[in-house]
Amino acid sequence: MSLALAARLARRELRGGLRGFRIFLACLALGVAAIAAVGSVRSGIEAGLAREGAALLGGDAEMDFTYRFATEDERAWMHGVAEALSEIVDFRSMAVVGEGETAERGLTQIKAVDGAYPLIGAVELAPDISLDQALAVENGRPGAVMERVLIDRLGLSLGDSFRVGTQEFRLSAELAREPDSAAGGFALGPRTIVTTESLADSQLLAPGTLFSTKYRLDLPPDADLAALAAEARSRFEDTGLRWTDSRNGAPGVSEFVDRLGAFLILVGLSGLAVGGVGVSSAVRAYLAGKTSVIATLRTLGATRRVIFQTYFLQIGVLSLAGIVLGVGLGGLAPLVFAPLIEARLPIPAAFALYPAPLLEAAIYGLLTAFLFTLWPLARAEEIKPATLFRDALQTARTLPAPRYLLATALALGLLLALAGWFSGTWWLTLWTAGGIFGALSLLAGAALLIRHLSRRGAHLARGMPRARWALAAISGPREGAASVVLSLGLGLSVLAAVGQIDGNLRGAITGNLPEVAPSYFFVDIQRDQMDGFTERLANDPAVERVQSAPMLRGIITRINGQPARDVAGDHWVLQGDRGVTYSEEMPENTRLTAGTWWEPDYSGPPLISFAAEEASEMGLSIGDELTVNILGRDITGTIASFREVDFSTAGIGFILSMNPGALAGAPHSFISTVYADEEAEAQILRDLAGQYPNITAVRVRDAIDRVADVLAGLAAATSYGAAATLLTGFLVLVGAAAAGTGARVYEAAVLKTLGASRRSILISFALRSALLGFCAGVVALAAGIAGGWAVSHFIMETEFSVMWSSALAIILGGALATLAASLAFTWGPINARPAQVLRARE
Asked: Which residues neighbour 557 within 8 Å (Cβ) at sequence distance 6 or greater?
């Protein structure tokens, strides 16, 4: 009976329109739309990856081997299960144009293919010719295709010659699109495609050089991918095989999309929290305006339950409207902007209306609306009829009845559980929730402190009426200092944290590069070239330091006789191949944390020195046995020591080092890092590359630029999410300013009656807004710096320093945003006639 009556009353209340609820709807819709849009884009990318899995991979399945070609047994098995087979060789090298001192060199990622490539999809070239035609031999020169960025860097034109190793090639076309580029992962240089046959005399694929081979399989339509994967792994995994199939054709991309999408959704939840503050403020302001209505209903006999249900239903209907609006906007935005998004994506996407992310966003919106409207509604229920006409909501007790506290706790727990389940990252969800709660607590405490300090400051500001009026207003209950500090402060906190993380991450990569990082990595140095290589650098006064080491690649397949992943899980050391070296004596600057190094003349069973930090993460101990597959051969050694390995210097660092006898006879090359003055780098490259054309040089600064480009895209994505949160905070500010218009009209009328000029009143209003925004910015900066430090220290494990340019922008932005929102609703109060305002208050 009470619910039916409440529904009738709520329906009548809704006939009054949306006055007072525009900000409510905007905050809720914007937060839901951001989450829905991010989820829809992620679903579109996942659908594209699933649909184009075979095309992205270049076949139905791929078998990948490290620095060797497949054996006869492996080839026989592949031919037995596949209808067609394509072999690809992938490695880095130097493309060279010209001779001697005038030669131009550029790092390139070479893909050497056979006649069957590509099994699926097509290579797009400019001019529009077939790949077979482009790679054909003309006048003794095999053809090659190259990406535009490398063509421009080397100053090439179609038909010009360039060298890779000792082999001369003819540039026949520009590589416009590579169908399987997403499966190749991160590359340090632009792509060049040649035939494997043309590299026979290039000296680039000698035993021990660094390359990988990928065998793409075109399987029968009824092939069971899961069964074939299990069979291939059981037969060949101990030989270093890595299997991928079209069920997840670009696993690295898919994992990245999942993690970025989860992170952005959690940023979106932060935006919903900001919007929740606005929702709560809007409900409070609305109920304050309904004092006479509620008083009349209570006087006529309406119970507390009826009052609560009436406005709960009304707010619920409006919340549903905001959620529907947000879901619609979030679902349609990716469709509208699909051409722009697809142009920026290196992978296919299938944008459509996906129910799952829209439902997820709607659930988040419902729970957020419930959490932030329950307390204001519950407090209204507690007000006695006799006090409803005397600013009831200001005199109600702060905490509602225990049943509402329990409902709030259950809703919050459900929201966190769903966020962890939907995102798939429980630790990130809990950290985000803790960060939001901590920031809200800090901001709430700051709001109380600001009011207290303003109250004291108002007494001290004698002789400065404008400042005194501003401080007195901030300390009063009607100014809404808490809403301003909470809404704007939380939005600025998210933006500040993103700015600090981005700045520190870039600083960790690019900062102080000449002091901490080498100039070049040189790889594929053959044994008989090491003496000449070392001699050239030793006689150069511009070279500060040279570090060289034998270089092999191996895959850890077993730990103590058990499959490695069964023992150490999905640790990153087990994901693919890792660098392996050997050393008779313990290298300089090496510090053992446990165990001992082998004797210089040791000739017993293989011994291993392992990186201490990674060993701890994998649960390894001294005496454990590791089986490492190197070039198809299993080598089982015993861990004799753990040592510190510092990868942050960008120098040589190996997870795994063995005694020389363990790797005797294994073909390998050397790697070297060269620390030199920047002005001497070009000459060093010319001399060494000219003398040893098979050597590949990776300029560290260029590699860092490539990484920085990737980080820039990631930072942009997170910044967009933070900007949406900040926009929500600004809308809350607008709502708070609109809600306080009545109080400011009365205040301006009183001040005018006492002789204050419009200019003085305007300055007072502006001063209080700027002070509140400045304080919100300072507190948000503290929260953002704390959040940035936590992420940098615990997650990225980088050093942290405050990015002051970003910090100052946050503080200034807070003051300007609050000032702009306030001034938009100032002209009405200062233009109101005092007589009309004061007469209406009688």
From this structure: 237, 238, 240, 563, 564, 627, 628, 629, 634
Instruction: Give Cα 653 distance to the centre of its chain.
Output: 26
Separation of alpha carbons 435 and 315, rounded Å: 28
Cβ-proximal residues to 764 (8 Å cutoff; 6+ apart), any chain: 465, 466, 467, 469, 470, 473, 751
Cis amide linkage into residue 127, ω under 30° from 0 = yes
First to last CA, the chain: 40
Tokens 């920085």, residue located:
708
Q: For every residue of 159-178, which 3-state class applies, written as one string?
A: CCEEEECCEEEEEEEEEEEC
DSSP code of 201? T
822, HSE (Cβ side, Cα atoms, 13 Å): 28
Cβ contact 335:404 at 8 Å: no
Q: What is the Cα–Cα distance from 750 to 470, expressed in whole angstroms? A: 14
pTM of the model: 0.64
| Bridge partners of residue 549, in order along the sequence | 671
* C-alpha to C-alpha distance for 822 and 737, rounded to whole angstroms: 5
For 487-531, how does the pLDDT look when each residue is reduced to its tens digit (9 = 90+)? 667 667 776 776 777 677 666 555 544 455 667 778 888 888 888
What is the residue extent of each domain of the chain?
1-58+258-424, 61-222, 442-515+700-842, 543-676
Instruction: Please return the burial class of 177, using the count of CB atoms within 10 Å of its CB with bins 0-12, 13-18 and 19+.
Output: exposed
Contact 196, 233 (CB under 8 A): no
Q: 281 near 289, Cβ under 8 Å?
A: no
Does an H or E element contain 80, and which? helix 72-81
CA angle, 199 then 202 then 203, to 5°: 120
Angle between helix 758-790 and helix 465-475 axes, rounded to 10 deg: 50
Residue appearing with tokens 């959490």: 371
Pairing of strands 592-595, 633-643: antiparallel
Going by their DSSP bridges, the two strands 212-218 and 61-66 should be labelled as antiparallel
Q: What are phi and psi of 563, to 5 degrees?
A: -50, 135
Which tokens in the block code for residue 276? 């929740």
| Cβ pair 798, 504 in contact under 8 A | yes
DSSP labels for 748-805?
HHHHHHTT--HHHHHHHHHHHHHHHHHHHHHHHHHHHHHHHHHIIIIIS-------HH
Q: Are 318 and 28 in contact (CB under 8 A)?
A: no
Q: Is 739 helix (H, G, I), strand (E, B) or coil?
A: helix
Please tell me whether residue 616 adopts helix, strand or coil conformation. Answer: helix
Which tens digit of pLDDT belongs to each residue from 243-283?
877 765 455 555 556 665 566 666 666 667 767 776 777 77
Of 214, 144, 179, whose CA–CA distance to 54 is shortest?
A: 179
